[in-house]
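Hey team,

Filing this mostly as a record. A colleague (T.K.) asked me to run one chain through the structure pipeline before their review meeting, and I want the input and output archived in the tracker in case anyone asks later how it was produced. No errors, nothing strange. Just documentation.

Input sequence:
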Amino acid sequence: MEPLARNLHAARMEDEIWLPVAFGDLLKQLREERGLSQAQLALESDVDQTFVSLLERGRRQPTLATLFALCDALRIQPDTVVATLVAARKSRKRRA
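Output structure:
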């Protein structure tokens, strides 16, 4: 593998590890800011509580449908969540 391709591959793998954790941290922050328990968020978004826990721990990633359901329950626009993650990623890449 050429050096450029190797660097791109390494960056993609790093994002695959970072993104679920960053999303989970953001989800937990938003949930706690709204005073919801995992059980309440799960109920309001029609997602299993175990799945909410897995998301918050970065063990799983949501589908688009799940992202929209979670955002509806948290009363936040999905594009705001994505924009927050994009900004965090840019900031992270600048530091690297």
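Quick notes for T.K.: Residues 52 and 75 are 16 Å apart (CA to CA). The chain has one domain: 3-95.
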